[in-house]
Write a structure and sequence with these properties.
Layout (H helix, E strand, L loop, with lengths): L11 E3 H20 L5 H15 L5 H12 L6 E3 H23 L3 H21 L3 H17 L1
Antiparallel strand pairs: 1-2
Helix pairs in contact: 1-2, 1-3, 1-5, 2-4, 4-5, 4-6
């Protein structure tokens, strides 16, 4: 589903930075699953929490990606922000679930949830498909149809 382009700057995010952030999410989730470095889930959780509670620019990964895009002279691709902000909340919930499951000695379940998170990040990174955005649009379509 194509994402609407909003002409209002405060309500936009750079889709290219979001895709670059998906790279870090994918790498950290895979590190959690396939290495003994389980502490990496704290880094991912803190990153999502910073983005959700203080805005995406509060994230060190986002700051790195913004600077990288400028250095590489990659033009921003501004898109409607609310679906991406919803996706960040989904990422926060998934990261928190991974941590809680892992700390509860439910390692297989933690790895499965981390695997789903890595799948979502890979879809964003490689195909520019945001699962959280898709759910956001689906939810709002159903909500609008029931209100009509």
């Amino acid at each position: 589903m194509p994402e609407p382009i909003c002409s209002c700057k405060p309500n936009q995010v750079n889709a290219r930075v979001a895709r670059a952030n998906a790279f870090f999410t994918l790498v950290m989730a895979l590190i959690f699953i396939f290495t003994p470095l389980k502490w990496i889930i704290y880094v991912l959780l803190i990153d999502f929490a910073l983005k959700v509670f203080f805005g995406p620019k509060a994230s060190p990964f986002t700051q790195f990606n913004i600077r990288l895009m400028r250095w590489l002279k990659i033009k921003p691709k501004h898109i409607f922000a609310p679906p991406k902000k919803f996706a960040l909340k989904v990422g926060l919930i998934f990261s928190l679930a991974v941590l809680v499951l892992y700390l509860s000695d439910l390692t297989l379940a933690a790895n499965i949830v981390a695997g789903v998170l890595s799948l979502f990040a890979a879809l964003e990174l490689f195909f520019e498909f945001c699962m959280g955005c898709w759910v956001y649009y689906l939810f709002n379509t159903v909500k609008n149809e029931t209100e009509a």
